[in-house]
Design a protein that fits this description.
By secondary structure, the protein is an alpha/beta fold. Helix content is 30%, strand content 26%. The chain has a single domain (20-125, 135-141), classed as Glutaredoxin, CATH 3.40.30.
């Protein structure tokens, strides 16, 4: 697993060491692909909550954005969203996880409990076949 340390939009800190011991689903996007990432991440997260049901707490689901280049409009939106019940989005302000990101796609990686990469792909959309594939991978790991 890549080394990282960052906060989500609510100020909660996350790092590679804080998520060890459980499988990790890590999905990232460039800032300009925020809506794509949010849509895909939300669909994947909620589908996995239903599929894994009692085991869902045994997996970390992390969504992150490359937040190195932001602007006042985005920062204001972020501040306003703190009062809403959005899922956490890690803000990669230092570029810890930007390697591998591609425009117009989310970068989806799955790591096992030890932090070893076991799946890596790029997604333009989150379809049912992919969700079932991810479910199969996670079921084997938990």
């Amino acid at each position: 697993m890549p080394q990282f340390q960052m906060k989500d939009q609510y100020g909660q800190s996350y790092s590679d060491s804080s998520v060890k011991g459980k499988p990790v689903v890590l999905m990232g996007c460039f800032l300009r692909d925020l809506e794509l990432c949010r849509k895909q991440g939300r669909k994947l997260y909620w589908k996995m909550q239903n599929l894994l049901w009692k085991d869902s707490s045994k997996v970390h689901f992390l969504l992150y954005l490359d937040f190195q280049e932001t602007n006042k409009l985005v920062e204001n939106y972020l501040e306003e969203s703190k009062t809403k019940q959005y899922e956490s989005i890690l803000l990669d302000r230092k570029g810890h996880l930007t390697v591998g990101l591609t425009k117009g796609e989310s970068y989806l990686r799955i790591f096992n409990k030890s932090g070893k990469l076991i799946s890596s792909s790029y997604q333009e959309e989150m379809d049912e076949n992919l969700i079932q594939e991810i479910y199969g991978i996670l079921k084997k790991e938990i």
